[in-house]
Each structure stands twice: as C-alpha cells, then as structure tokens.
Design brief:
3 domains; alpha/beta; 13% strand; Aldehyde Dehydrogenase, Chain A, domain 2
Length: 385
C-alpha cells in the first residue's frame, strides 16, 4: 500500500463513477463495500512522515503515505475470516526487485546500452514503480565490473532530474542514506542515490527488506568459481535475501547464455519471481495481456511478500507460475549486425530515448486509425531514438 487509505478509497470510487463497464462496477463495488464495512478506510496506516515532513489529515485522523502492507494484510484477514466471504481478495504489493548482471565479454556499446537499461529500470517515474530495480547483483570477479558501474554512475549524473512527486519518497531515501552514509548522491529534489558494495550476508539490511520506492539503487558483489556457479549464487541470494517475488531482470550476453546452456534454463526455473525479464525490464510483462502479472505463487496473508493472484493471462492458463519475457541484448540495427533477428531499436521507455514522445504518439495514432501511411514516420522516429 503506497498511499493514504482514504485517498485510495476516493480514487477508487471516482473511477467507478466514471467507468462505463457495468460488470467491473459490480465487482469493484462489492470489494470496496466489504472493505468499508470492515473499517479498512477508517483507521490510519503506518505513521511514516510525508515527503514534506508532516502528515495528511483526513476525517480527524492523521494520515501518512505508508510504504508497507500491514493495513492491507489486516484487512485481508478480516475479509477471509468473515461470514459469507465468497473468496480471497487478490492484490499486487511490489517488493525489492533485483537485476542480475551475468558476466561476459561486452563491448563499450554493450556496456553503455545495458547501463541505460539499468538506469531506466531504476529511475523511470523517479524510481516510483512496483518493479523499479532496487538491487544490482554483480560478480565480484567480472573483469568489466568497474567499467559497468562507472557507466551507471555517469547516467545517474547525466539524466534530467524528474520531480519526486510520490509521498514519502524523501523519507525513504533518507532512511537508506542514514543506514549507508557512504552512499553516493546525485542531482534531484530527492537525490538519486547509489550504494555500492553492500554485504550480501548482512542481516536485516534495509535495502534488501524494504521497498524503498525512491531513486535509490543498491549494489552487491557475489563470488563464483565460474559463471554458472555465480549465477547459482545470484539466484539463491535473490530468493532467500530479498523481500518480495514480483519481478526480476537478468542481463546476459547471447554468447554467455549459449555457453551456459541448460545451466541458464535451470537458473530461470530456480528464480522464484512472477515476472522475469531477460535483457529487458521485467515490467514489459505488465504490458502484454497474454502474460501473467503478479507475485510468484506461495504468498499468504501471514507472509504476504508481493501479494497473491494475477492479472493478464488472456490465454487463461489455470495455474500459471510466472512469465518470462526475452528481449535482445542489442538494439536494432546492432542486433542484425550480431546475428540477432530482433527489429526493436532502443525501446521508447528508455530514459535516454530522444524521440519517445514522437514515437509513442505515432503508435497511438496508428492504433486508433490503422493506416499504413503512418508507419514510415513511426519507424523513422523509433530509429532516431
């Protein structure tokens, strides 16, 4: 839960009033009525200071933007144990998403492009995304380790600052800096923050156990006798040390993936996240109606993690476990030059894409008015991004 509860209720009821889908109105009205009857909107959430240092006031109660899920968990307990309960109320609750860097031999162009990928996963929407990358997992023995981190650091310095509009962002960033005074701070009304070399064995580490929902990127190094052993250690770390199971991303050179062979597929199987992106932000699964979106199965109200239930799944799989989205390691045309048939240029969601606003307007236009004559301008804009 990331906003004051009364604010959630107001937005939800406003949505119902404006939405014309009668079936959806019935479903949401039923759940909101049950929440209201159980006083879910009548008590304050966890008392965290707002970004301005104060509290919201609503109905005589102090309200602060709580980053956490305890009020929802208590509500779910009430709903599931109440009389005449027709079933559970699913929900997606975020977590601490990792990005795993698999070591390999990368060119300077590869390092720059994948650093842009990481910077986007972290800083898109000023870091306020349920699957914003929070922990960068790297091999301590990768020869290009420092070069890659320098590329990420440079982007955190260079990219235009985005207003940190989300309530509580400053408070959570300050929590991270208090826990790690060695953190590097960059520009922004809430400073972009890079925390390098956190001990992966640290107990009760804030960056591992709390979704910071802010422009804070933590980084750890893991050992490995070889690439396969490192990847095994990375998967175990993510499964055992990081809170939540919503999404994870893996960046890996095609040659390294080929060399790993079945070891890579075994690592995917062992990585318990609801959406996994390979060379692409796992958030892309949310954009695909065929894909599932939600936590990895196994959460309960006693151990809620990233929630339970899914959305999407237009193929109607009965018991889906996860979605794996695969992207190209290279943008077009470098993809073709490296034997990859992918035709995607730099994705429009990259923060470094210079023509995203033009490309996306063109895509909306051709969607509403599907005519071939719009296509050349869209492709030209995409290639110039």
């Amino acid at each position: 839960m990331d906003t004051g509860q009364r604010g959630q209720a107001s937005l939800a009821f406003l949505f119902l009033r404006e939405y014309d889908n009668l079936s959806l109105k019935i479903v949401l009205s039923t759940h909101l009525t049950r929440l209201s009857k159980n006083s879910f909107f009548d008590h304050p959430p966890c008392p965290l200071p707002s970004q301005e240092g104060g509290f919201f006031k609503s109905g005589g109660h102090p309200h602060a933007p709580a980053k956490g899920v305890l009020p929802l968990v208590e509500c779910l307990h009430t709903l599931q144990e109440g009389e005449g309960n027709p079933g559970s109320l699913p929900g997606e609750l975020g977590g601490v998403p990792p990005t795993i860097i698999v070591p390999g031999k990368w060119t300077k162009a590869d390092i720059r492009y994948q650093a842009e990928n990481v910077a986007t996963m972290k800083l898109q929407n000023a870091g306020c995304n349920c699957v914003a990358s929070q922990v960068l997992v790297m091999s301590e023995s990768w020869e290009q380790h420092d070069e890659f981190l320098e590329a990420v650091r440079q982007l955190m310095q260079e990219l235009p600052a985005r207003p940190s509009y989300y309530p509580g962002t400053a408070y959570r960033q300050q929590e991270a800096v208090k826990a790690h005074p060695e953190a590097e701070l960059f520009s922004g009304d809430v400073p972009r923050t890079l925390i390098l070399g956190i001990d992966p064995d640290a107990e009760a580490e804030l960056c591992f156990q709390k979704e910071l929902f802010s422009p804070v990127l933590a980084q750890i190094d893991l050992p490995g006798r070889d690439t396969a052993d490192y990847l095994h250690n990375a998967v175990r770390f993510c499964n055992e040390k990081l809170y939540g199971t919503l999404g994870a991303s893996i960046l890996i050179h095609p040659k390294t993936m080929k060399q790993l062979g079945p070891d890579f597929e075994a690592a995917l199987t062992a990585l318990h996240y609801g959406a996994i992106g390979i060379n692409i932000w796992n958030a892309s699964a949310f954009l695909l109606v065929q894909a599932t979106w939600g936590a990895f199965p196994g959460s309960t109200t006693d151990n809620i993690q990233s929630g339970f239930g899914i959305v999407g799944n237009s193929f109607m799989f009965e018991k889906p476990e996860r979605t794996v989205v695969r992207g190209s390691f290279y943008p077009f045309p470098r993809s073709w030059l490296n034997g990859d048939p992918a035709f995607l240029p730099k994705p429009p969601w990259f923060l470094t894409n210079k023509t995203a606003h033009i490309t996306t307007r063109g895509v909306v236009k051709i969607t509403l008015d599907p005519k071939w004559r719009y296509l050349p301008a869209i492709l030209l804009s995409a290639l110039r991004g």
